[in-house]
Design a protein that fits this description.
- This protein is of the alpha/beta class and 372 residues long.
- It has 12 helices and 9 strands.
- It has a 5-stranded mixed beta sheet. A two-stranded parallel sheet has the order 5-8.
- It is globular and about 55 Å long.
Length: 372
């Protein structure tokens, strides 16, 4: 009799566990999920699994990433990316794992998945200098694979409800289309001669519209799209153009502003034309400019120097790696390396995107989007 009771308890426990996988996330929805698309600003390690020159799986990257005990994970910063921090702030149970990681299957999908790739762009040709990277078109293809896995895991109707109600789709892309395409003469001389800034930006918008619409057809409904930051203010651009400490390079910033204006128009258009979708614009350009301009107000000591890097006035030529010089006060630098913000900067950016007002996130902040 005791054996029968014990077996019944095991059966009940197993049933509850299975129900927890499907019922909790779909009906009660657990803590929600983040599906992350983009470039090295939010890559969580996908490039570890491809033969690419754009990698961050070496020290001292990740030195402040508590979840790995300070070991590199493939994140291009000293700690958490902005996507990691946003997930935490919204109560996500765990970080969205890289799509290419072998353990990103089954129940792990229910925290969301990270498809971002260092060197990636909106255009497939962007980032050729890195040999391999996962561009936005392929990232959406990969989400289509996840979409089918979620159907198998939850059932078609429940998977659709889960994605539409409790998943946020974040898109952080566009910087490489300028830095490692249009502004890189070695790779893009033909493009720049043949195409005006207007024409190139128009191509970006056409491709991004298609990519976002494809995600919508796969049941994505809650989007946050990050605009391009002030590229002319990163240590790499400041170093190669030899500008002063309080100056930024004009052309990259002009291109970013021009693109961002078109992006804002695109998201308004998609909000009007895709029923049930909510596209929020994260105005990272103005947010980073505020941080750079008034860095001391936010507790930083420099907004020009890379903490980890080498070469030139701002240590902005050589990416962060084992032989790089590294600053002592990592939390006092806006930039971790020649290209990417430090974790301390990412924390500030995330706070404004999750809980800020319409100056930096519109038409609503992420906490409100998440609650819909």
């Amino acid at each position: 009799m005791g054996w029968a009771v014990a077996m019944a308890a095991v059966v009940v426990a197993l049933f509850a566990a299975v129900a927890g996988v499907s019922g909790e996330v779909v009906d009660e929805f657990g803590s929600g999920a983040s599906f992350i698309f983009g470039d090295s600003l939010v890559d969580a390690g996908n490039n570890n699994y491809i033969p690419s020159l754009s990698k961050a799986n070496m020290t001292p990257n990740g030195i402040d990433f508590a979840a790995s005990g300070g070991m590199p994970t493939g994140r291009f910063t000293n700690g958490r990316t902005i996507a990691d921090i946003i997930g935490e702030m919204l109560g996500q149970a765990d970080y969205s794992p890289p799509f290419l990681a072998p353990n990103t299957t089954g129940g792990a999908l229910l925290n969301g998945v990270n498809y971002a790739s260092g060197g990636a762009g909106i255009l497939n040709g962007t980032g050729r200098i890195f040999v391999n990277r996962i561009g936005m078109d392929l990232q959406v293809d990969y989400f289509n694979i996840t979409r089918k896995q979620l159907d198998a895991l939850l059932g078609r109707d429940r998977a659709k409800k889960y994605l539409r109600k409790k998943a946020i789709f974040s898109v952080t892309v566009g910087s490489n289309d300028f830095l490692n395409n249009y502004l890189m003469p070695v790779l893009s001389a033909g493009t720049r001669v043949a195409e005006s800034p207007d024409g190139f930006i128009n191509d970006l918008i056409i491709h991004l519209r298609d990519q976002l619409t494809r995600l919508y057809t796969l049941d994505a409904r809650k989007f946050v799209v990050v605009n391009v930051g002030p590229l002319g203010c990163i240590p790499y651009q400041k170093t190669i153009n030899r500008v002063g400490e309080d100056e930024c390079v004009k052309l990259p910033n002009q291109l970013a502003v021009q693109y961002n204006g078109r992006l804002r128009e695109l998201l308004i258009e998609l909000n009007d034309n895709l029923p049930g979708a909510r596209f929020c614009l994260a105005n990272v350009y103005d947010l980073v400019m505020e941080l750079i301009t008034n860095y001391q107000t936010y507790g930083f000591e420099t907004a020009s120097m890379a903490c980890c890097g080498n070469g030139g006035s701002y240590d902005g030529l050589v990416p962060c790696g084992p032989t790089s010089s590294m600053c002592d006060a990592r939390d006092k630098h806006v930039f971790w390396d020649p290209y990417h913000p430090s974790e301390a900067a990412n924390v500030l950016l995330a706070k404004y995107i999750v809980d800020g007002d319409s100056k930096y996130i519109s038409p609503m902040n992420l906490r409100k989007l998440f609650s819909l």
